[in-house]
Amino acid sequence: MMHASSDKNDWMFGNDTDDPLRHAFDRKVTVHPGAMGRPVPPEDWQTVLQDRLDRRPGPEQRAVYINIPFCRRRCKFCNFYKYPADKETVRRYLDFLVREIEMSADSERVSSRPFNAVYIGGGTPTELTPKEIGKLLEAVNEHLPLTNDCEITFETRTSGLDDNRARACLEWGVNRFSVGVQSFNTEVRRSLGRIDEREVVIRKLNRLQDFGLAAVVIDLMFGLPGQSMEIWEDDVRTWLDLDLDGGDLYQLMVLRGSEMETMASGERGPADLPQQAAMFGRALDIMEDSGYRRLSVCHWGNGHRERSLYNGLTLAGAEVMPFGAGAGGNVADVSFMVESDLRKYEDGVMRGEKPLKFLARHHPMRGLFSDLSGQIDSGRVDMSSLRKHGVDLEAAAGPLLQRWSEIGLISRRGRFLELSVAGQFWNVNLAQGMIDWCMGSGQGTAGHPPQGAGAVMG
Question: Do the Cβ atoms of 101 and 139 come closer than 8 Å?
């Protein structure tokens, strides 16, 4: 049963403001669509997971995530980086990663239906040599069933990308490159710890596009230290001038444990939330006249090659089979993470087990939460479609929806709720607010919304 407090002081109700784009909320929260799942005791992890792996999957689309936890250097906004790219460590890790993939190949869950998307991320996967890239992708193609139109994404940055690595990817079926550019401005890039100058970035992106065999998609960030509105506009227009297949325009995430967290307290720190909101709004003005297809509140495609299938599936809560140290995913009614410590990861694989760091059963309302979060990320929610989860959300959350309408975050068009520009900027707050409302807490999934300078789920 759904219930919630109507106290207007709850964070989810937002602020009384004439400028909702910049001031609807005091902070961004992070979406947890699998809110408050029930942890499984460690001694039961293997039994519970194996039971799910022995079951045939349903007909829904699903994906694979493969983690390469190595980088040449750590960028200042990142806390995902785990290990330096030492050649012997990478070589040894790859051997265990391939073995992990092989171990899963014969399970009913993996073998009985093909996967629709594969995402190889990190870290920086192009820290692998061309030969190692071939070895990994050969294992993927040999041991994982893939649809004939499977989207296979390889994540990279320009400093790790050369023709030989690109050819190795393309030879083994990679059809989408996701390139972390963040900014084209050389000084801004250097402040982040990025190596390549503007001209080098552009040249390498053009070269990758020249192969003509895969979608080339980039990430840009707004709110970076030293990134004025003028620089941000140039970043967006430079991307459009390159005529790539797509791109993401992400708000800077100031993550705990990153160097950016320290920079945020200094004079040359990142932009504050109102400044970031203005940058988001300006980017939408530019994109409105670009002719690009909008695939989500922060992602665009150019032409028809870019599908952003993996991103769409994960946002909607689709099943994701994870491989590699630190990878996370979900199968049937459980979510889990692979052990991130390399030694423990190797020990688990050597025992013939999926090396797990945690495992939890899903919240009973996870289907609703995931569907809702995915639709909010698209900028439009079909309220009638959510009734398949057994909940009339519009009736149950009427006071919250009315409040958001009053302060200019959403509007109603038939059975759809449409997010305004302000609602799009605050989409994560809307998603988590609805989840909290459904759960009756009004205080965030961990007792309170996470604090942070502009934290947002990408």
Answer: yes
Q: 3-state secondary structure string, 404-443?
A: HHHCCCEEEECCEEEECHHHHHCHHHHHHHHHHHHHCCCC
The alpha-helical segments, DSSP class H, found in 211-334 are 229-242, 259-263, 273-288, 309-315
Cβ contact 112:57 at 8 Å: yes
The full length of the chain comes to 458
Q: Are 171 and 210 in contact (CB under 8 A)?
A: no
- For residue range 137-178, list pLDDT tens digits in order: 999 999 999 999 999 999 999 988 999 999 999 999 999 999
Asked whether the beta carbons of 3 and 395 are under 8 A apart, the reply is: no
Q: Which residues pair with 356 in a beta bridge?
A: 338
Nearest residue to 194 via CA among 142, 156, 238: 156
Give the separation between CA 47 and CA 361, rounded to whole angstroms.
13
- Asked if omega into 123 is within 30° of 0 (cis), the reply is yes
Q: In 3D, which of 86, 98, 100 has the Cα closest to residue 128?
A: 86
What's the pLDDT at 14? Answer: 96
The C-alpha atoms of residue 259 and residue 77 are separated, in whole angstroms, by: 6
Cα 317 from chain centroid (whole Å)? 12
Q: Residue 457: its pLDDT value, please? A: 26
Residue among 410, 380, 389, 388 nearest 398 (CA): 410
The Cα–Cα gap between 294 and 301 comes to: 6
**How high is the pLDDT of residue 193?**
85
**Stated pTM of the model:** 0.91
What b/e string do you get for 86-104 counting C-beta neighbours within 10 Å, with b at 16 or more? eeeebeebbebbbebbebb
Positions of the chain with pLDDT lower than 70, given as ranges: 1-9, 32-36, 73-82, 255-267, 441-458
pLDDT of residue 445: 35
Number of helices (H), then strands (E), belonging to the chain: the values are: 18, 18
Pick from 352, 254, 306, 336: nearest CA to 65: 336
